[in-house]
Amino acid sequence: METPHSRADDELDWYSARSPYKLADVFELWRYRQLAVILALRDIKVRYRQTIIGLVWALLQPLTQLVIFGVLFGLLGRSPVAANVPFVVSAMCGLALWQLFSQSVAGASLSLVENQSLITKVYFPRLVLPLSSVLAVLIDFGVACGLLAAIMAWYGVAPAASLLAAPLFVVLALLVAAAISVWLAALSVLYRDFRYVIPFFLQVAFFTSPVIYQTDVLIPAAWRPVFALNPLAGAIDGFRWSITGQGGFPWLTVIVSLPLLTVLLGGGLFYFRQVERTFADRI
């Protein structure tokens, strides 16, 4: 007589049948693309449900930071951006992309823990959860870009032809967020104290990334190769260049960050795949 298998046993058999060296099943993720969209829309609704000002929060955050750092650098008597670019415009370029990155990492890193009821009851590729969290922040990024366009119009800064390259650096920032998120999402399931590491990591990343300053203005030339080891630096430098069209293309930070991003993302997907089968038991 054949022994019946539970859903957990069938899922374990499915995991065992997979190749351990494959980073991600792209075709399977594509089959579950509608689930990713549904989860992203759910996150958006939950974020703005019963809020007083809704999407205005996406404007208040960068505006508050612009005022604080503008006053701070004014008191110091030094501008962290090129003289031919208004500080507000340059800083807003960095803050818009930083908001996209930080919200993606903050949401995706805890996506598995916060959706434990789904993980323990229904099978789907677990990678869908952090990816859907990344998609959910695109609306806030669109609002921030609208604010950036208004600031540029106020200061009379016209977009350059390099604006066509801006989507490439947005994708680069999303890839950096995804690479870090898959690591933190998996580690947050296995080790619950990682939820306290995430805010500290984002705080450190903010000041070690060229968010409110330009790399070639504030960072000494001797330290720029080390600074470029931050994969987010290439995305922010490139996005700022594409929006303002000022200065040369940030070859150093982009070229150094790309291979590091490849290693970080590949390693994160490999680790996620190795521990994915234990999520239902450990969560």
Low-confidence segments, given as residue ranges, are 1-17
Report the β-strand fraction as a percent range.
under 5%
Total helix count? 16
Measured as a percent range, the helix fraction is over 70%
Global shape:
globular
How many strand units?
A: 0
Compute the separation of the termini in Å: 34 Å
Q: Characterize the main sheet.
A: none
- Specify the structural class: mainly alpha
Using only CA atoms, what is the Rg? 21 Å
Order of helices and strands: HHHHHHHHHHHHHHHH
How would you state the average pLDDT, rounded?
Answer: 81
Describe the structure.
The protein has helices at residues 7-17, 26-31, 33-48, 57-76, 87-109, 111-114, 116-121, 128-136, 138-155, 166-190, 194-207, 215-218, 224-227, 231-244, 251-275, 279-282. The protein is built from 16 helices and no strands. It is 72% helix and 0% strand. The longest helix has 25 residues, at 166-190. The radius of gyration is 21 Å and the shape is globular.
